[in-house]
Design goal:
The chain has 287 residues and is α/β, with parallel strands linked by helices. It has 9 helices and 10 strands. Bound molecules: 6-hydroxymethylpterin-diphosphate (HH2).
């Protein structure tokens, strides 16, 4: 139906998109909303990344700056200090693609030089220099929708039609990326759950996420342990939101997401195995 690329070439490490793939989150931050401080040393972050691969993660997403609502910006030198040693070690010690979760061009460039094979940019390459960096680096890049800035995005999110507005934004960012020289085969889109959106906005986007398949590129879904899951389930603590997160990501996969960005890899991998077994059952013949 849509000629979505069957794989992503992540700096020589190929990620086949024959089934939904699990992106394990490694936050090397003191203040990430769900696991801040748990892995904020090189050793702890590397150990956590290796653990996620052992649990079945198909790729890892390394982040050095929390983007939770109300988060404070991190200087580029500090972000580099946090993530580069971790990327170097994980790129050497595991064979899965490594993604860098950053919107700073300097961090993108240093991370790819250190062994990252994908850029995950919550600002969709809108920072000065980011489009050129992505074009120069020639690796897949995730373009995510955000309304506003992390510091204030959850104050009063408002849309006339959230699906149409997010679709328009991603269409425009894809156009800008391709005009700057980023190959379409390297583009991934992300609806940006929780980034300037109420729970109602998030659930509307999740329900209609198949609407975005006409953009012709893989879609990433990131709902893991987020506030909306907490609101729907009554689970105050992010670590208690595993079941709700797995349910949301299974729905995202069923509606076309090919990359699932999660904290709880083992639970997500298990859920996808059950889904795959059911999905493999041939449709009844219609004579
Ligand atoms: N592409 C993409 N990247 C993201 N990066 C961070 C977070 C926020 O989650 P987390 O990393 O767990 O928390 P924090 O930003 O506090 O480190 N969510 C997304 C997302 O939904 N999509």
């Amino acid at each position: 139906m849509f000629d979505i690329s069957p794989q992503l070439d992540c700096g020589g490490r190929v990620l086949r998109l024959d089934r939904p793939r699990v992106m394990g989150i490694v936050n090397v931050t003191p203040d990430s909303f769900s696991d801040g401080g748990a892995h904020d040393t090189v050793e702890a972050a590397v150990a956590h990344g290796l653990q996620l691969v052992a649990e079945g993660a198909d790729l890892l997403d390394i982040g050095g700056e929390s983007t939770r609502p109300g988060s404070a910006p991190v200087p580029v030198e500090e972000e580099l200090r946090r993530v580069i040693p971790v990327i170097e070690r994980l790129a050497a010690e595991t064979a899965v693609p490594i993604s860098i979760d950053t919107f700073k061009p300097a961090v993108m460039r240093a991370a790819v030089a250190a062994g990252a094979g994908m850029i995950n940019d919550i600002h969709a390459l809108r920072q000065p220099g980011a489009l050129d960096a992505a074009a120069d680096l020639g690796v897949p890049v995730v373009l995510m929708h955000m309304q506003g800035e992390p510091g204030s995005m959850q104050d009063t999110p408002h849309y006339h039609d959230v699906v149409a507005e997010v679709h328009r934004f991603l269409t425009e960012r894809m156009f800008q990326a391709e005009m700057a020289g980023v190959a379409k085969k390297h583009l991934v889109i992300d609806l940006g759950f929780g980034f300037g959106k109420t729970t109602e906005h998030n659930m509307t986007l999740l329900a209609r996420s198949a609407r975005f398949l006409d953009l012709g590129v893989p879609m990433l879904a990131g709902l893991s342990r987020k506030r909306s899951i907490g609101e729907l389930t009554g689970r105050e603590q992010p670590r208690d939101r595993v079941a709700g997160s797995v349910a949301a990501h299974l729905i995202a996969a069923q509606r076309g997401a090919m990359l699932l960005r999660v904290h709880d890899v083992a639970a997500t991998v298990d859920a996808l195995k059950v889904w795959a077994a059911v999905d493999a059952v041939p449709m009844p013949r219609v004579d």
